[in-house]
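Observation: inputs received (chain + flavin-adenine dinucleotide).
Thought: call the complex predictor directly.
Action: predict_structure
Action Input:
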Amino acid sequence: MTGHLPIHALSDAVGGSGRIATDEARRALAAQDISGQGPERPGVIARPATIGDLQSVVRVAADHQMPIVVRGGGLSYTGGYWALRPDTLMIDMRDLNAVEPVTAASSVVTVEAGATWAQVYEALKPHGLRLPVFGPLSGSRATVGGGVAQNVAFYGSATHGLAGDHVLAMDVVAGNGDLITVNGPEIAAYVGDAGILGIKARIDMRVIAFPSQQHYVSLAFDDERGLLAVQRAIAKGALRGTIAEAYGFDRVTHHNLAATGFSVLEAAGIAGDVARGAGSLVSAARSLTKMAVAPRAQLTRIAWSLHCVLEGDDPALSDAAAQLDELCRSNGGRPIPDTIPRVARAKPFRPVRAMLGPDGERWLPMHALFPPDGVDEALTIVAAARTQHRQAMQACDLRMSCMTAVIGDRIIVEPQFFWPDSLTEFLRANVLPQQLAAHGEAQSNPRGRELAHTLRRDLTQKFGAAGGRFIQLGKFYKTPLSESAQSSRQAIKPANDPDGLFNPGALEFN
Ligand SMILES: Cc1cc2nc3c(=O)[nH]c(=O)nc-3n(C[C@H](O)[C@H](O)[C@H](O)COP(=O)(O)OP(=O)(O)OC[C@H]3O[C@@H](n4cnc5c(N)ncnc54)[C@H](O)[C@@H]3O)c2cc1C
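Observation:
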């Protein structure tokens, strides 16, 4: 299949045959993401080590009218880097990962797009600096380029919104191989574009001082109304600037956490991280005491929980903590040990194990962002789907969890599906060794798989109709977060990519 492709020219452009892969196995692997199998294998994969080589390889592809897809960490689940044609060039960005040095006075950091969020976090921390939105939960392997192309969110997002909101400039490789600098209002079009406007090569991100203190709060709620009332108030501006994260879990998530990540045993295993994160032995001892009184059984009895990280300087932080406490209690929240946010922050980027459920199940997440007053309807839609499909879900052992989180002035609702199934090649290559050893021989469950994908499509359609908007667009979601950014993309696309070679099929382009 690769016989007619310009392999020699691509190889010369990218720095030699060691930076090109054409073998069946790697191309087959590159045709999958977490959500499953894409339509075609890419014909060839190039892994440039310099931006100059990246430009050269794009020029060769353009000369031969090859479609181009870009892959960062490969941790997305919306077909973002799937190839639609067998003559596609896939560009693997992971060797373009330099983070330029900063000083304590820096307000900007320049990174190559293949750098991971963890690399950037580690580079900034010794200087007392941080990105405002400092990464997704997958940041130990997900790249800044992939995150900006998908406009990700998590750490810092209750205060600072989406990662893309903090991009100051970008160098982007256009369809003719030229490097163009994007800044000012045009940035909005390139953020969340799934790479259709070009390849992000180098990104300038805004940097802030790492807040001097953190305060952790976790609460239990008997039903979702109290949780949503608190998240709604935060998204509407209560305690604005103080609450960095505010995420909510349902009972299914509690079961999952109890079964894996936040059991007492695990808490003991990560005691060292917490001790380092806590800053002093006294506060570490206090954290660990709290963990010890959070046995698994207790977590699984809770219907909904909210986990917040507050940041700032005293005395403002103490005032904010008191206000949050009052807000939560007046909405039926009762304090529980703050193990979850404290452990998450102690070491934000751990090896990625959540690609599988706690018992090795397959995992398929989805989401939509809602204005604060739209979030109740979203949860009603989720509850209705659970009721309507209960029997079918039970028949194939499919479970659905739901997470909610404040992202600036919106709330993200994220249902996730879990079902027992065999592992794909992608998963076999990417899960942790102990997960592969334990679950590598799982039986195939096509009915569970099909139902998970059907429910994901169905909920996506219903969320969209209810006013939900999407990030992580790739080739799955079609409704972008911002209509004005989509219009700008339409205007820019013909100049940057006249032949429509960048990521065909993404974002309703091409
Ligand atoms: C366990 C787990 C937890 C996760 N947690 C979160 C979370 O907390 N928040 C969240 O938002 N997401 C989360 N995700 C989803 C995923 O990690 C993010 O979507 C992330 O952005 C993927 O980054 P990546 O480098 O792996 O991108 P990839 O999957 O490689 O690519 C994503 C998209 O970006 C494009 N792209 C990649 N690099 C470039 C570039 N340099 N130039 C142009 N286009 C490019 C690709 O073509 C593709 O369309 C999670 C995923 C997993 C598996």
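Thought: report the result.
Final Answer: Residues 34, 69-76, 80-81, 93, 113, 136-138, 142-143, 145-147, 149-150, 152-154, 194-195, 199-200, 352, 354-355, 472, 474, 503 surround flavin-adenine dinucleotide (CB under 6 Å). The mean pLDDT is 92.
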